[in-house]
Design a protein that fits this description.
Number of domains: 1
Order of helices and strands: EEEHEEEEEEE
Number of strands: 10
Oligomer: single chain
Distance between the termini: 36 Å
Largest sheet: 6 strands, antiparallel
Strand content: over 45%
Strand order of the largest sheet: 1-2-3-8-9-10
Structural class: mainly beta
Number of helices: 1
Low-confidence stretches: none
Mean pLDDT: 94
Amino acid sequence: MSEIKSREDGPVPGVAYSEVHIPDDKKLGTGSFTTVLEPTALKKINPIISSIQNEPVFLMIVSINIAIEQATAMIGKSHNTPPLDRRVFTIPKGIDLMQVNDFSVSFSDWDITGMKLNGNNLQTADS
């Protein structure tokens, strides 16, 4: 059992860094994926799309769309197959668009189990 932790600085405009953490390399479908946005990114770029991929074994895509106050997370194994799970979360009104914002997705056994914004749990859009 080996841990996987990988960080990419400035992967796309508006993203300060993204980081994947998988505690056990034998269980790629369990871990977390964090996207930390640059200050004011949500004011200037919409949507912001952050991803991590190691095809054909792992793919995570997070789309942050402040205009519709939603963040969508998808997990799968490659671009040419349907996602194994997809969840839409509601971004609360009134977040500070001028500060650094940290979106963190947790997943277990290829199911997305939650998303946090700056350490606070987000509600799914259908709840």
